[in-house]
Specification:
InterPro entries: NAD(P)-bd_dom_sf, Sc_DH/Rdtase_CS, SDR_fam. The protein is of the alpha/beta class. It contains 7 helices and 7 strands. The chain has a single domain, classed as 3-Layer(aba) Sandwich (Rossmann fold).
Length: about 260
């Protein structure tokens, strides 16, 4: 167990399950105080109960959040500040999948929802986190965005909506890093490869043919799924002061898939 985040207050969106939960566990293991943010209240309660048996109550809190809603995003950041007096690290992990459809099969309602959660959500959360970071006597803070290797590819990993959302998140990451570097605020993005997480639950019950082809092509190159705890360790390191020289970086965590 490391102490990379000792003394830090960290908020993780999408933190009640999947990769988000793995990141919460990794942050707690690194001695952080953690706020778990998620839209699923039941999952939040189950996660808090599970982790609360291990961690002391003063190291863990939860808040129901719809990251695509500005009031909800603002309240989540304020919850961390009210509960623990400050926020040091924001980890934007909440996300949903699309139906793996290119533009000719695009469902506008699904497009809008994917963009709202995967792109607008991190923007809104970052907006209020940065306001807090800048308001300190000595401005500082770190934002970690969780993207996908879909941000580097056009024909692999996802459909038009998801791919666009993750490409956009790379742009937001770099813009945020550049805008606030002089104020001591860092922003980086990790791009995981294929993982076994609950994001699959937001996909269609019967995946279309393109999904099958994508999965087969990815597994042919790298037959094993990336482990969520391995990605989580990468996120913890980049969020810590040990990575203070890293800002605006795009870090792949895909077991080498994009190297092929």
């Amino acid at each position: 167990m490391s102490d990379l985040l000792d003394g830090k207050v960290v908020l993780v969106t999408g933190g009640a399950s999947g990769l988000g939960k793995a990141i919460v566990i990794a942050c707690l293991g690194a001695k952080a105080t953690v706020v778990i943010s998620d839209i699923n209240e039941k999952s939040l309660e189950e996660c808090e109960k599970e982790l609360g048996n291990v961690e002391s109550p003063d190291k863990l809190s939860k808040v129901v959040t719809d990251v695509s809603n500005e009031d909800s995003a603002a309240k989540a950041i304020q919850h961390a500040i009210d509960k623990f007096s400050r926020l040091d690290v924001l980890i934007n992990c909440a996300g949903i999948m699309d139906a793996f459809d290119p533009v000719d099969g695009l469902d506008l309602q699904l497009w809008n929802r994917v963009i709202a959660v995967n792109l607008t959500g991190p923007v809104l959360m970052s907006k209020y986190a940065v306001k807090h970071f800048l308001g300190r006597e000595k401005p500082s803070g770190a934002i970690m965005n969780i993207g996908s290797i879909a941000a580097l590819r056009g024909a692999l990993a996802a459909g038009a909506a998801y791919t666009a959302s993750k490409h956009g998140l790379v742009g937001i990451t770099r813009n945020t890093a550049a805008a606030y570097a002089k104020q001591g605020i860092r922003c980086n993005i990790v791009l995981p490869g294929t993982m076994e997480t609950n994001i699959a639950h937001s996909m269609p019950a019967c995946p279309n043919e393109s999904l099958v082809k994508v999965t087969q092509s990815m597994l042919a190159v790298h037959p094993n799924f990336v482990q969520v705890d391995h990605v989580a360790k990468t996120v913890v390191h980049l969020a810590s002061d040990s990575a203070e020289a890293i800002n605006g970086a795009i870090i792949t965590a895909d077991g080498g898939f994009t190297a092929f």
